[in-house]
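Checklist before submission:
- one chain only
- standard amino acids only
- sequence pasted in full

Submission:
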Amino acid sequence: MNKDIKKIYEVDASQLKGSALDVVSPTNTEEVRRIITQTKNIVIRGAGTGLAGGCVPQHGSDVVLDMSKMDKISELDKERRTIEIEAGVILDDLQDYLSDFNLEFPVKPSSHAVVTIGGMIATDAVGNRAIKYRKTSDWIKWIEIIDSFGKVEKRGITELSDYSGMEGISGVIMRACLKLSPLKKRTATLLEVDNLDDVTSVVRKLKKNSAVSMIEFFDKEISKELGFDEHYHLIVEYEDDSGELKDKEYKKLLALRDKIYPFVADKGYTRIEDPKIMLDRFVKLMSWLESKNIPTFGHIGVGILHPCFNHEQEKYISEMMKLVKRLSGQISGEHGVGILKKEFVEMNDKKILINVKKRTDPLNKFNVGKVI
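Returned file contents:
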């Protein structure tokens, strides 16, 4: 493979750099089986949108298994609202296909324009509508996997936790049967809030409204950089006509939300984290982040925040993780552990992950050095 092309596969969206032995891009199941049986160390890659180094090859010994060409959409059942697809299907491509049938897959991460369904399953992606639609695994009927011996098997809901959210350490996700939702007509409102306590109160009230499908937060610094007044702001999405912004204005506001991380990264805040906390601990964590001048946004409706650190501020990440744990929070709400957060995984959680790895990947082929 061309060296310049290979370099593309040696990083992901975290910008963590690795080194690959080779890159292979199969187009069917038999090719994947052959690659698995003939290869010692395999790193599974979808679109490379991960923010924790989960698909970054290590030490020049990993073969990158690029699943992006496994992108067939088939078997739509309109009555049962299910669809069977391959792992490399891009979320927005799926949405475009489903829109003709007035259906959608309701989980929507910010990287929806490029993220693959296989990657979403592997990280159990959440996205900005989690307040209503929760996470990817809640919308899966079954998945088809290939294990380290090259055996193709189907896994249902009861076995899903061995693969969804395991970041590729347990096997290669090939296909999935997804549950679907009727396509919604949505509106939104941009709320300005003066202080953090009021943010908590407003969010708590909004969460009682069954029409609310999204509550997104951005702090004063990000608000100012985006051209708004220097206050806290909330984007509230409704699945009815309650929102002030409709049609083009609604789409414009959501597009602005999707651009927040690229915007702050361009200003040097390239390291993004994803702690998850309960709403009543939000003020304590946000006050600490503000004291360190760390710009923050996130899915406040489900307690996931995205603090963004510049190179000099990365020294505070360990301190933040300790605070999150003291607040009974989680070190990762949606990005996964990958390489970047391995050191922060609790010992009991690590033991569970190790046991799953030994049971599902006894040959230790997949994503070695990630998560555990």
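Reviewer check: Residues 3-66 form a domain with the Uridine Diphospho-n-acetylenolpyruvylglucosamine Reductase; domain 2 fold (CATH 3.30.43.10).
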